[in-house]
Amino acid sequence: MADDKPLSGRVALVTGASRGIGAATAQALAAAGAHVVLTARSARDLEAVEESIHQAGGTATIAPMDLAESDSIARLANAISERWNQLDVLVINAALLPQLTPVTQIEQSAFNKALTLNVLATQALLANFDPLLKRAEAARVIGLTSSVGKDPRAYWGAYGATKAAFDNLLSAYAHEVERISETRVAIVDPGATRTQMRARAYPGEDPQTVKPPEEVAKRIVALVAEDFSSGVRIRVENSR
Fold it and tell me: pTM (2 decimals)?
């Protein structure tokens, strides 16, 4: 295995891969040699990421879909199983940020959508891809979280609650698989990062004052190649 392609021969799935941290992570994994399956709702945006990967000499497959739709994850798992029979890397990045508001004013339908994508879809991803991960030699599951899941903040209650549940699911799964397989799970808090979600939450912030998604992606790729304790939580700090 070439030093510049440490993930050669591996298959990776990245959710929310159409932009931001997901797109940057997909590109970085492909640059490291992995074949990357890209999923998000926008086919056009996925095609742009796929094209950038191909132009850089990598390989990728797009799977446009809504993770919140019934059976969509099961269908994707079946498709990957038929083509590759295993999954080496699962990056759970897709997330929905509901409106920032006091707990007493949380809009129920928006909260339900966030719970469905951020929590229920996460459980479905773990359930459907667990067999494929266990077939890999040393599978890695990376979940992108937020500090508000661990440290509650005013007006962030809805999103924070979904991320607290997300963290709990991943941590429990990490403990469940660490003694019976080579699968290792890491929870990554990207910190302040230049994304559309960040811009929505902090509309007055100068985006140049926070790190680009590529810095987070670089840390994720390094983590995938590392041997670490399952369930570890890592925060990516600004390099400036």
Answer: 0.96
